[in-house]
Amino acid sequence: MPRPIQAFVHSDALRHNLQRMKDCTPDARVWAVVKANAYGHGIERAYEGLRGCDGFALLDLNEAQRVRDLGWRGPVLLLEGVFETRDLELCSRLNLWHTVHCTEQIDMLSQHKTQQAHRVFLKLNSGMNRLGFTPDAFRSAWTRLNQLPQVDEISLMTHFSDADGPAGVAAQMQVFEKASQDLPGERSTCNSAAVLRHGTHPNVSADWVRPGIALYGAAPDFPQRSIADWNLQPTMSLRSQLIAVQNLQAGDAVGYGSAFRADKAMRIGVVACGYADGYPRHCPTGTPVLVNGVRTRTVGRISMDMVTVDLTPCELAGVHAGFGSEVTLWGKSINGVVLPIDEVAQSASTVGYELMCAVANRVGFIQD
Question: Is the domain of 208 the same as that of 263?
Answer without folding.
Answer: no
